[in-house]
Amino acid sequence: MNIILLGPPGAGKGTQAQRLMTTRGMVQLSTGDMLRAAVKAGSPVGLQAKAVMDAGQLVSDDIVSALIGERLDQGIGGGAIFDGYPRTAAQAEALDGLLEARDQTLDFVIELEVDEAALIERVEGRYTCARCGTGYHDRFKLPKVPGVCDVCGSTEFKRRPDDNAETVRTRMQEYRAKTAPILPIYQVRGLVHRVDGMADIEHVAQSIDAILAGRG
Ligand code: AMP
Fold first, then answer.
1. Cα–Cα distance, 117 to 54 (Å, whole number)
2. How far apart are CA 2 and CA 125, in angstroms?
3. What tens digit of pLDDT does each residue of 206-215 get?
4. How far is the CA of 9 from the centre of ligand 1 (A)?
5. Which of 45, 87, 179, when mutated, tests ligand 1's pocket best, judged by the most ligand atoms within 8 Å of its CB?
6. Is the pLDDT reported for residue 216 higher than 80?
7. How confident is the model at residue 165 (pLDDT cuts 50, 70, 90)?
């Protein structure tokens, strides 16, 4: 089973993708994570992408589709969760080709519907454990012991450089202008299901499970 999680920054795509990996043995394919890894490694792709990402704009379609193709070739176990890809009509078309060439199909497109004003607050306050990646939030989810990760005990945390108010606004605009318009492509194929992304994490998870089980 291969699915796309669609929604603006902060909608909860990453959180739900992580959960589906654990519960279903699926594989998260996050182009954002792949690009951040490339930036950290200082690879040619990373060097090209960094300024664009810092500005909250979209990296070129060819770069991200190539990253997805490479990742698909490494195997996708119980299925792929596309998180943050596709983000443009050209990427949606590229994904069709990438899946077809590998005898794979797309089974569900899940749109996480959210309120933009609340998202800015969500994204601005979020940070992760630098060691294990567990997510926290300045207001909504603090570690139980201040400054210590609940999961691994690390005292090092990190924030994404593009999670500031100004860049978040640009990322939202990019979503509205370039990503939301790809929904009709999948709607005509009957693949789109909508979930209230403002509900708490467990409710969103239940709604997604119901969709994947054909009850949504
Ligand atoms: P994300 O982690 O999905 O929020 O992505 C972080 C940043 O990486 C975005 O703001 C873009 O600059 C870039 N990016 C991630 N995925 C894509 C994509 N599919 N197409 C273009 N740019 C992307």
1. 21
2. 31
3. 999 999 998 7
4. 9
5. 87
6. no
7. confident
* pLDDT given at position 160: 92
Q: Compute the Cα dihedral for 101, 188, 78, 131 and give only its sign.
A: positive
pLDDT band, very low/low/confident/very high, at 94 (cuts 50, 70, 90): very high
Residue nearest to atom 6 of ligand 1 (CA): 32
Q: E strand or H helix at 173, and its extent?
A: helix 165-174
The tokens for 165 are: 């108010």
Q: What angle do CA 119, 142, 147 make, to 5 degrees?
A: 130
DSSP 121: H
Amino acid at position 57, single letter? Q
Please tell me the distance from the alpha carbon of residue 204 to that of residue 30, in angstroms, as a whole number: 19
